[in-house]
Amino acid sequence: MDYRVKDLSLASQGAAKISWAEQNMPVLMLLRRKYSEAKPFKGVRVGAVLHVTKETAVLMKAFIDAGAEVALAGSNPLSTQDDVAAALVEYGVHVYAWRGQSGEEYYWCLEKIVEWRPQIVLDDGADLHALIHEKHVQLASSIVGGTEETTTGVIRLRALEREGLLKYPVIAVNNAYTKHMFDNRYGTGQSTFDGILRATNMLIAGKVVVVAGYGWVGKGIAARARGLGARRVIVVEVNPIRALEAVYDGFEVMPMSEAAEVGDIFITATGNKAVVRREHFEKMKNGAVLANAGHFNVEVWIPDLEALSRSKRQILPYVTEYELSDGRRIYLLAEGRLVNLVAAEGHPSEVMDMSFANQFLASLYMLENKGSLPLKVMNPPVELDEMVARLKLESMGIRIDSMTREQEEYVKSWRHGT
Question: What is its EC number (predicted)?
Answer without folding.
Answer: 3.13.2.1
